Each structure stands twice: as structure tokens, then as C-alpha cells.
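Supplementary material to the annual report.
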Amino acid sequence: MQNLKQIPALKKERHAFILKQVNLHNRVLSNDLSLLLNVSEDTIRRDLNELAEEGRVEKVHGGALSRSFSGIYQKQQVYAVDKKKLIAAKACGLIKDNMLILVGGGTSVREMVRLLPESLSATFCTISITIAEELLQHENLEVIMLGGKISHSSKVVMDGDVFFKLGDLSFDLCIMGSNGIDEGKGLTENDLEIIPLKKAMIKASRKTAVLGISEKLNTRQRGVVCPLTQIDYLVTELDPGDVLLEKYQMEGLTIL
Amino acid sequence: MQNLKQIPALKKERHAFILKQVNLHNRVLSNDLSLLLNVSEDTIRRDLNELAEEGRVEKVHGGALSRSFSGIYQKQQVYAVDKKKLIAAKACGLIKDNMLILVGGGTSVREMVRLLPESLSATFCTISITIAEELLQHENLEVIMLGGKISHSSKVVMDGDVFFKLGDLSFDLCIMGSNGIDEGKGLTENDLEIIPLKKAMIKASRKTAVLGISEKLNTRQRGVVCPLTQIDYLVTELDPGDVLLEKYQMEGLTIL
DNA sequence: GTAAAAGCAGCAGAAAACTGCAAATAAACG
DNA sequence: CGTTTATTTGCAGTTTTCTGCTGCTTTTAC
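Predicted assembly:
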């Protein structure tokens, strides 16, 4: 990346740029930013202070970190990040203005939220506080958090009123990640706790989209969420015409 | 695993990395870490000291152990130079095992949550996803998120079922920050949206504690939450005997 | 016991952060 | 428009933080 702007960037623009960088890389150095934006480090420092005051980044000596970073170097996913980005971009295409959308947790969904166009104006409902946090970065989205007891491991709402509440609503679209997708058993999970939740989510929505990198295809976990027939869209990083996807297409799923 | 970074690591990143290693392997050697992170052993030692001060690892000759591994709980030592830290530490004293506690948003509350002893086992209910995130750092806490539409600015639940839900529950203690505290009008806020929420929170709790640095004392904002009589505890960084607090004590508040 | 490794205190250079101030820029207003 | 006001930005000087190093003490291992 080279210097994007010789023109003096407005403060708001800088803030947006910085946030983007932080969310993308989980970290930024004041030094880098001052070079990228052609302003003094003092200005960057002031920007970071302001963003930190608003709780949008965590400021540290030398730069800033993403607020929702809980152990940065998960190297096991580095190779998959590009794939997930691609998946995320495709999934964005399903979302239109004014829709009411239910989203689950997981990194795929998170990437998708990050890629949502800033102009999008819709209502999102989520069970994950991590995702809620990401959704709030978009000014034009209405964000609704489902309440209940939160699981320590996955940071999603696990019981309480979720089920009751999900039964009350009708969503245009449900978007969730997946652990295993397979022709026989359909959508499967290894975290058994989350199974009833996903079932309820699917039931509450008119259409359901499942995101997953291709490695998840033709794998099976212990817990069964639903058969393929209950899923409408399958989003992977592969080309829709890929041979791996053929049998899913025949099952009636729309492949993106 | 080889050295992950040629890039300069920020201190906080190192800490996160070290914690991950400790929790993964139950032990780390200073030597290994210094190689992995490309810093001197002195730096690692200092990092380990800091993490040990916070009670996140147990330091031993040559490295560190996971705290849950040895089962030793470091005493909560607070050399509170910061006012909010001091307030937070005092407020922690109000909380006992097995309580059901309702907490609001704000930085004071956040600091308090961070200082909660790791051994504490209680149930927390919150309206703020930021606070929920912090609460989840404590393994022994049960965290309940109240659902509803989330405000972009403050990241707290603003309407929806919150009120309905708050009416259903009875909390042992409610802890919230404050914008203004004053003898005449009592507790006041400048964000009008949050007023009804705070009212409902107070009503749903047996006892209410208000946290605020002394600068908030004798100041008044536009929106009135409640008179002082509805508040039970007032927590500031001042000594309870401070002259500034006298009149609040006379109003019947317990000063911490 | 001795030797090696780890720890510790303190120092110093470098980098970053903060302070106050003045110039530049944008916004408000008649 | 021009003028005034407020905000923003960069700069210089000072203070704080971070980090590696040196010399010395303590712990560990043989």
C-alpha cells in the first residue's frame, strides 16, 4: 500500500481509515499511520486517543490494538483468511437494504460483517456479542442483541430467552458458519450446546445461508443441525461450478 | 513453532502471546519466549512480572506456570494510582459470592469488572456488550446479557425487551456510573435516552451503588435519574471522611 | 563446594507521549 | 463577502516508557 492521499484528509476520514486498518490487521503502529496518511505522529496520537475514548480501539504504547482481540496470533487461520474474505464478499451479495437478518457467531460471519458496505441500511439480529460489536461499526445498521446467558467459550447467547424470542420473529435471511457439511447428515456441529440454537435460528428465518471454507465440505461432526433441504444458500470460496459442489447443487442448494 | 515476528511486537501483544502459551502448555520458559518473540530475556522477565502482578500467571524460577495449574490465587494488589482503579477496587468490596448483580455501562464499571477477583463466583447481568465482554474474561462468572436494540454510541441496549425483562427480576445489587451527582437533583445524566433505563435498573435492585470520580460531585446534568434517597452506596476516589462527601453522608448514603 | 543459569537493580539510549503554543484551516455569522 | 470564532495541526521542549546492558546477588544443578 502506498500513500493514498496527498490531499489533507479530514479527521473523520482518518478515523475511518484507522479503524479499517485496525480491524483488518488487529494492530496498527502510530509510525506507519503517520506515513500512510501524511500527517504527523502527534495527529495520529490524538486520533488514537479519541478512538480509544470512544472505545473503538485499544491504545497502547506505540500504536493501537483491536478492541476485540483476544489473543492475536492465531496462526492456524492465517492461510484461511483470504478464503474467508472471499466467502464474506459473496455472502454480502445476499443482503439488501431494509432486510431483517439473523446472524450467528464464528469467524466467517465476522469477516462478512466487516465487509458489509457502509451504505447498507438494514436490521441485524445476533446472538454473539463479538458480532454485535462488529455490526456497530456500521453507522447505518440497526443492531439487535438477543438476550440470555452467554457462553464463555463462544461468546454467544446460549439459553434464556433466546428461544422464546426467536419464536416470535420472522427473519428474511439467516446467515451462519458451519463445522461440517455433508450430503448424508447435512449441517453438523461439534459443539453440542449450539445445536438447538441453530435449529431455532433456521426455523425463524425464511431463507438460510451457510458459510464455510471448502475443507468443511464432506465432513461430518457429532451433532446434527439439519438436513441440506433446510438450507437455501451455500457459500464457499470455490467457484460455483466446482466439481466438489455438484452434488450440493443437485440437492437444491443455491451455490454462490 | 518458529519465530513469528520480525516486526516489532507491542508489549500488549507479547502479553497476549505469553498468556496463550501458558494456558496452552501450562508452563513457559523465559528462554523460549525470548527466542520466539525476538526480545531479550530481561524483557520477558519484566513481562512475566507484570502478568504475575495482575495474577494472570504464576512466576517461577526460569519461567512461569499457569495459575489454574498450581491453583494459587495471587492476592488482588492494587497500587491504585488511577482514580478509577481506586473506585473500582472499593466497589469490588460490595460484591460477594453468589450474588445476582446488575451492572450498567461506562468506564468506571469496566474498570471494576477488570478488578474483580478471579475466585469470585456470581451472576452478572448487563446491558452493555462492552461490559459483557469484560465479564466473560472471568471464568467463574455467569454472564447474562439483556437483549434489545443496541445504541451505536454507548453500546448498551436501549429498548426492546429490556424493560420487560428488568421488571421480571430482582437483583441483589445494581452498580452504575454517573454523569452528575448533586444534593438537589440527585443522580443526573446528559444522555437522555439512558434515563428510563437507569430508572428501571434501580427499581429492579434491592441496593444501588453509584461510582463516580469526585469531579462529578456537585455537578448537575439535564436529565434526572433519581433522588439521592434511592441510592445506597456512593463510591468515589476520596477518603470516606472527606469534607466534600459530608452532605451525602447526611443524606443517608453509605460512602465507600 | 563450585559452576552455570536466572534474577535483580540501576543506568542509558531510543522511542513514544504529553504539554503548551502558534500557525493554519474550517466553521459561523453578520 | 469579510470578519470573528473555534477547531485542527504541527512543532519544540520536557517527561515518561520501553528495552537492552552491566555488574552483582541468588538460586539451581552437579
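Residues 11-25 of chain A form the longest helix (15 residues).
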